[in-house]
Amino acid sequence: MSEFLNIYKTFAKVLNDLSLGIDVIPENDDFDPPSAGQWAEFSILSQDITSMGKSGAGDEASGVCQISLYDADTGTLSGVLFALADTISANFTHGTSYTEYGGTAVFINSLSRNTGRIAGAFYQIDLSINWTAYIDR
After folding, report:
1. Among 98, 72, 101, 69, which residue's Cα sits nearest to residue 85?
2. Count of Cβ atoms closer than 10 Å to residue 104 Cβ
3. Sign of the alpha-carbon dihedral angle for 34, 21, 31, 130
4. Residue 79 gets which letter from DSSP?
5. Rounded to an integer, what distance in angstroms lies between the CA atom of residue 65 and that of residue 111?
6. Is the pTM of this model over 0.85?
């Protein structure tokens, strides 16, 4: 089923199109974090597919896309990360939909920001985007 990949690619394209001015790294990428500055990493944390009926009605896919924002400059107020979080949040508001790959529309249900924290040598803020997609059979 290529829908998993289509949904993943849709999030990747939308994030890249935002032109955030930082590296946006997909999950499981061979990436060496910088010793200064900011970057983002995104992954699909969960994805469930539920049948909408027996006779070709299609399937409903839902899940969470997490975008983790990192700042190597710990110990200072990270206004840059907050601004990045605001830019991303403005593009993933409730009711927004994106159709980028394979004709599968990804609908944004909600976005939440988790508490910032020190993760190793970096300050990290996570954004969780809850989404739904309807897949034709």
Report:
1. 69
2. 20
3. positive
4. H
5. 9
6. yes
Residues 47 and 4: beta-carbon distance below 8 Å: yes
pLDDT tens per residue, range 57-76:
788 889 999 999 999 886 66
Alpha helices, DSSP H only, in 30-108?
A: 79-91
Q: Which of 106, 71, 70 is nearest to 91 (CA)?
A: 106
- Indicate the residue type of 128: S
Cα angle, residue 77 at apex, residues 76 and 82 outer, rounded to 5°: 140
Statement: residue 53 has pLDDT above 60: yes
Rounded Cα–Cα distance for residues 6 and 118 (Å): 33
Report residue 25 as tokens.
């790294």
d(CA 118, CA 125): 9
Residue with tokens 């394209």: 13
Give the pair of three-digit tokens for residue 94.
């409730």
